[in-house]
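Milestone M4 deliverable, item 7.
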Amino acid sequence: MSASTSPRIVVRSLAIGLGFGILLVKSEAVSWFRIQEMFRFQGFHMYGLLGSAVAVGMVSLFALERLGVHGAGGGVMALDRKPTGGWNRHYWMGGVVFGVGWGLLGACPGPIYALIGTGASVFIVALLSALLGAWTYAALRPRLPHF
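Output delivered:
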């Protein structure tokens, strides 16, 4: 058994995932009402939540890189810098597809497990759809342009 699949790592990962799921539910990040409110520009709740997450993520990634923290693979963590500026239609198209799917589903695909855990069993369809989408992408990836 490798170190990444030891029972201790699995239990710790499940505990972190459970805690994160509870945090998502308690912060109303998985609330259909809050998501619709955001897409209709009727409330600040989700914008504040997402903005806070982006800020914490940026500071955390900067600190990990600056401090030279080593990742699970042993190498120093570093961000893969992409060119900035200008119009990049691939990012825009991907963002639009993601946003439309998010708006139609009424939930971000990230907390699907938390939503299922709250008893919203209809999100099993969303989970199966997400898995089908990931499988389709994996099958088509060799034929798609990557920039």
